[in-house]
Amino acid sequence: MKNKINEKQKTEIHAPIVEALKKAYEHPTYQFHIPGHTKGLGVLPEFKNLIGKKALQLDTTDEFDNLGTLTPATGPIKEAEELAAKAFGAKRTFFLLNGSTIGNLAIAMGLTKKGQKVIVNRNCHRSVLTGLIISGADPLWVLPEKLSNWGLWGSVNPNDIENLLKKHNDVSLVWITNPTYEGVVSDVKSISEICKKYNVPLVVDEAHGCLWNFNPKLPDSSLKLGADIVVHSLHKTGGSMSQSSMLHINKNSSVNEEDIEQALMLLHTTSPSLLLLASLDASRAHLQSKKGQRQLNKAISNAKYLRSEVDKMKHIHQLKSDFGYKTDVTKIFIKADGLSGKRLESILEIDFGIEVESASDEGLLILSNIGNKLSDFKYLAQCLHKIDQNEYKDIYYLENKKHMPMLVPIIKKNLREAFFSNKEIIKKEDAVGRLSGEVIAECPPGISILLPGELITKEHLPYLTDYEFIEVLK
Ligand SMILES: Cc1ncc(COP(=O)(O)O)c(C=O)c1O
């Protein structure tokens, strides 16, 4: 009987890479190939003790032990990608190492060319910009709505996309970020319909929304809403290991799969980590399993619990859907009267031992994850109540430092052209009035403060307090 249950569970959570890796571990060969630590024997003992012998025995790359290859996808890796495509509702899924960053680079390299126009939201991640520098395509910036009370970017207005498409009849791609880092959701359905009307493919950087397809209480995934390509950072909220992500091509998309595949082949490492690939396979299987479903439901109910506690507070407020923005319930952005987000973050860390996802000028971001317990949120709520009742002072403003870039860019030169122009490094104080030679986009959130070819103004200085020198065009 026990075996029967195990068999049933096994089919339910079929994870080909995990299974192949287990087989390789249980039937070790005499190894005369990379990785040279050879199942952990050539490793600093302190490191081995720290991460465990088994982790090193499992650390291998593709081609060996019947594990398949990443590029082109073969064997268990191919099977795992196919299962992921099915789970996310895609025609084709590519597993990514080096995060969604490499997905964005491959999209730019595979689908855009020098001089082509690409509609992009200004608060995109810097990997999108790096991609455009590589390809030489010209961004046509869309400024999303500004949520000024929260110091955040909001959603992309579909009308802004349509107006740009009307004005420029040679746009090769529309590329938006959805949701924002803080969980604000755009109307992807309308944007996708507009893109179809103008026959322009839609790419959605959904790095922060990989859970959506697995629970009806979360927003609809962009694949469901008609985007051509979607990128997901499974490692951010999906439960896979750091830097593992996925890129999906939608079922009815006319985007050429080979263009993406070719770009990924050139950009990817030629020694992919099987541990990372297995963790992607495992996270997809887990999200489909009963336990994973339970944990995701719990992440949602824990978030709701915290939100109901914040609603009881006098001086702490939260960004939520009923303010007119559509948001992902699991991303809780709060702010406290009289405290900057950075100050609130340091109070939580120093006084209460709590580390949050990120903080900016106005507030901070808390993630309710599938690995969190209700007791974590009870403790967090208790601490926030204490902060709410005590008169903490803000000392952060003394630093005159800003974190969330919200400026409208003054563009003087093409991105790629400026990036590859002659440059010099000068003192920050002398940089006002010059054109930036570098991408300045601190993480988090990885949104650009300045891009090559943009005019540096006085307004940029509070964002550049950590910089003594800046690279400018000659
Ligand atoms: C919107 C967005 N896209 C892409 C990325 C890059 O993702 P990764 O860290 O998986 O490379 C990030 C990272 O924070 C992001 O916020």
Summary?
This protein is 37% helix and 15% strand. With 474 residues, the chain is α/β, with parallel strands linked by helices.
Could you explain the architecture of this structure?
The chain is of the alpha/beta class. The protein folds into four domains: 31-64, no CATH class; 75-288, 3-Layer(aba) Sandwich (Aspartate Aminotransferase, domain 2), CATH 3.40.640; 295-399, Alpha-Beta Complex (Aspartate Aminotransferase, domain 1); 415-473, Orn/Lys/Arg decarboxylase, C-terminal domain (Ornithine Decarboxylase, Chain A, domain 4), CATH 3.90.100.10. Helix content is 37%, strand content 15%. The strands form five sheets. It has a seven-stranded mixed sheet, with helices on both faces. The protein has a four-stranded antiparallel sheet with strand order 11-13-15-14. It has a two-stranded antiparallel sheet with strand order 4-5. Strand 2 (117-121), helix 7 (126-135) and strand 3 (138-142) form a beta-alpha-beta unit. Helix 8 (158-167) packs parallel to helix 9. The N and C termini lie far apart (76 Å). Pyridoxal-5'-phosphate (PLP) is lined by residues 99-101, 125, 127, 177, 181, 205, 207, 233, 245, 446.
